[in-house]
Amino acid sequence: MLFLNHIYLIPLFPAFGAAMMFFFGRRLQKNTVNAVCVGVIVLAFVFACFTVVDYNHFAHGTGRPFYKIVYTWLGTGDGHLAFAKKDGTLAAFNVDAGFLLDPLNCIWLLFVTGVGMLIHIYSTGYMAHEGGYYRFFGYMNLFMFSMLTLILANNYMMLFVGWEGVGLCSYLLIGFYFHRHSATTAANKAFIVNRIGDAGFILGALTLVWYLGSFRFIDINAAARSGHFAIGDPVLTVAALLLFVGACGKSAQIPLYVWLPDAMEGPTPVSALIHAATMVTAGVYMVARSNAVFVLAPTAMKTVAIVGALTAVFAASIGLVQNDIKRVLAYSTVSQLGYMFLALGVGAFAAGVFHVFTHAFFKALLFLGSGSVIHALSGEQDMRNMGDLRRRIPTTYRTMLIATLAIAGVFPFAGFFSKDEILWQTWASEGGAYRILWFVGYGTALMTAFYMFRLMYLTFFSPSRMSHEVEHHVHESPKSMTVPLVILAICSIGAGWLSWPHSLGGSAHFEKFLEPVFAREAVVLAEEGKSAQLAAGEKEAEHTDKTEYLLMFLSLGAAAVGWGMARRSYMNAGKDYVEPIAAKAPPLYNVLYNKWFVDEGYDYVFTGRRKIGKIRLGAMGAGEASSWFDAKIIDGAVNDVGWVTRAVATLSTWWDKWIIDGVGVNGPAILARMLSYPARLFEWGLVQWYALVMVAGLLGFGVYYVWK
Amino acid sequence: MVPITTFHYLVVAAALFVLGVVGVLTRRNVVIVLMSIELILNAVNLNLVAFSRMWGNLHGQVFSIFVTVDAAAEAAVGLGILIAFFRNKETINVDEIDLLKW
Asked: Out of A244-248, A520-524, A704-708, which region has the weakest mean confidence (pLDDT)?
C-alpha cells in the first residue's frame, strides 16, 4: 500500500523535471538534462508499476476503485459552500485535488508512463543535434505531468486541469520549431480547435454537476447507476453529447480532427507521444470514464458510434494518397481513434480501451520508426524521395514492419485482436443495429492495410528515389533510438495476447480486468440490446462463434487484399511512379489528395480567410456584416436621432438666449435703464455735494419761513 | 459788564455750527469731516444746554448727554468703516469714495 498511498507522486516526478528545466535548464549540460528528464519518467514508470501491483492487492480482483483525496482544492470541504442542483436541492460544492485508481486508468497509467519512457529515451537520440534541447525535454516532462494528472484525477475539474495542460504542451511542442511559420500556425490551429472541444467539455461537466450534484466520477457514476434516471434522460443526453464534443476536439474526431494532421509540424517524438499514443486518447478515456452517463444516453452513444465510424473511413481515405510519411501516420491515427469511438459508441467500452492500449504501442512505434527514417535521410519526409531503405536501416525496417502488420490487423499481432474485437462488437451489439457501421469499419480496415503497406513499400522496398547526397548519408539510428523501437515492436506483437478472445481458446484477461468498470453498463446495454432485438423481430443469441470466425477471416482477408494491392502498385515504384488512384480516377485522387477540401471549406465557413471582393465569407463574414449593420444602420439611426435632437436643442437655445432672455428678461431691464437716466444724473457720488444740497435746502426753508 | 444771556450762547453755538458745516462741506479728509460733524453736534448740545438753563428745566441737559453718547458711537462706527475702507482702496479722500453712484 506504500505506493498506492503515495500515488500523487507519480505526476509530481515529471513536474519536478519540468520545473528543473524551466528554472535551470539553460545552464545544464545535455547529459544532465537527459539524467533529470528521462530519470523522472523512469521513476514515474517504476512507481506506476508498483502502484498497479499494489492496487491489485488492494482490489483483489473486485475492481473496486482506490480513492485518495489529498486536499480540497475548491470549496470548503465541510460542505458549507453549496449550490442548487437542477431539482432544487442543495449540494456541497467541492473540488478535490484527489486521485482515483481503478482498472480503467491502471491501463492508461501503465502505457502512458511506459510508452512515455521509451519515447523520452528515443528523444535523447533524435533530438541530440537540435537546438532548445532542455526546452524540448521540459515541455515533454510537463506533458507527462499533465497527462498523468488527467488520467489519475478523481473528478472532472482535475481531469480538466490535465486536459488543458496536455493541450498547452501540445501547443508548445507543435510550435517547437517556432521560427518556422507553418509550425506556429499549426500550433495555433491545434490550440484553437481544441478550445472548441474544451468549451463542450466544460459545459458537459458542469451540466453533470448541476444535474447530479458532484464533480467526482464515483458520485456521478453512483448517481447515474442509481436508477433514478431513465434511459434517454434528456439532460444526461445533452451532457453526454457536450462531453463528446470535448472528446472530438482532443481525440481528433469529425469535425474537429483538422488540427491533428497539421500537428505533424512538431518533432517526431512529439507526434509519437502526444499525437498518437497518449494525449489523443484522452477523449476516449474521458468517454470511457463517463460510461455510466453515456449508457443512459442512447442518442449520444449512437452519435459517438457514427462519428467514430465516419472519422475512421474519412481519415483513412485521405491517408491513401498522402506523400508525407508523417501525414500518412497522422491520418492513420485519426482513423484508428475513429475505431476507438466506434467501439465506445456501440457499447464495447472494453474493446475501445483495448484498442487504445495496443494502438499506443504500434502507432508510437510507427511514428518513432518514421522518425528514424527521417533521421536517416537528413530530414526528408516525402515518401516520393525515399525507397530501398530496408537493407540500409534494417532495425528500423523490421520494427516498422511489425507495427504495420499490427495496425493492418494481421494475426497474431496486437492490432488483430483489438480491431477484430471492435468489428465483432459492432456487428453483434444491440442485435445488429450497428451492422451498417461494421461495413464502414471493414472498409476502413481494408484501406488501413493498403496505406500502411503503401508506406512500407515506398519507404523500404521499391527502387531508390533518393538524391545522391541524401543517399550518401543514410545511416542506421543510434542505440538510444533503436532500443525503444525494438521494445515497442515486442509490445506490438504481444500486447494483443492480453485479450486473446474466447473464440480462439483464450481467456480475454484484459477485458476481465476491465469488467468491474463496465459491468453495470454491460447489463444496461444488454437490456437495451435485447429490447432493440425484440423490436426488430429477431431471435436472441443469433450470433454464434461461427459468425465471429467468419468476421475474423474477413478481417484477415481485408488485410491481405490491402497488402496485395499495395505490393502490386508500389513494389517497383520508380522515380516517376503513378499513384493507382490517380491513374484510375483522377478527380477522386484530387479530392483525396486535397483532404476532401475540408480545410478550404473551413476557410470558407469559419476562419474568414476567404473573401469575395472586399466581403468576407463564413462566420467571420457574418460577424463583419453584423458589425457593419450595427455601425452603419443601428448606430446611424441612433446618430440621426441624436442629430435631430441637437438641431432642436440648438434652435431652442437660440430662442432662449435671444428671445426669452434677450427680449423678455433683458428688454425691461434695458428700458428701465434708459428711463432712469435723468434720475441718475442727481447721483454723482460725492458725499459733500449731498451735504451741500442738504444745507442749501435747509437755508432755503429758513429763508422761506423768515421771509414769509 | 454785560450779563451772559441765552442770546450769547446761541451766537457761539451758531458760529460753531457754521464752522462744522463749512468743515463738512469743504474738507476732503474723512477724519476731518467726522471731526466737523462732532463740531455740529456740540453746537447743538450748546443750544440744548442754553435753552435748558433758560427754562430752568433739566431735560435739555439730559438730552445733550444722549447726543454725546450718540456722537461717540457714530465716531467709533465711522472710524471703523473708514479703516475697512482704507484697507480696500488705500485712500480716505471723500472725492474718491463714490462707489454708490451709478
From this structure: A520-524
pTM assigned to the model: 0.78
Residue A360 phi/psi, 5° resolution?
Answer: -55, -40
| Arithmetic mean of pLDDT over chain A | 88
Q: Of A598, A125, A593, A130, whose CA–CA distance to A324 is shortest?
A: A593
Give the closest residue to B16 by CA, choosing from B34, B42, B35. B42
Among candidates A305, A289, A291, which has minimal Cα distance to A340? A305
Task: Give dist(CA A111, CA A358) in Å, integer.
Answer: 9
Residue A695 touches chain B, beta carbons under 8 Å? yes
pLDDT digits (tens, 9 = 90+) for A635-670: 999 999 999 999 999 999 999 999 999 888 999 999
* Min distance B5 CA to chain A CA atoms (Å): 23
* Omega before residue A255 within 30° of 0, cis: yes
Question: Considering CB atoms only, which of B26, B95, B102 is closest to A686?
Answer: B95
The answer to whether the beta carbons of residues A390 and A514 sit under 8 Å apart is: no
Give A194-220 pLDDT, tens digit per residue: 999 999 999 999 999 888 888 889 888
- Tell me whether A685 touches chain B (CB under 8 Å): yes
All three cell numbers of A654: 437660440
- Please check whether residue A678 touches B, CB under 8 A: no
ipTM, interface predicted TM-score of the complex: 0.82
Strand partners, A69: A98
CA angle, corner A537, sides to A536 and A542, nearest 5? Answer: 95
Dist. CA A386–CA A476, nearest whole Å: 15
Per-residue pLDDT reduced to its tens digit, A131-153: 889 999 999 999 999 999 999 99
Q: What is the dihedral of CA A625, A627, A629, A633, to 10 degrees?
A: -160
Q: CB distance B25–A688 less than 8 Å?
A: yes
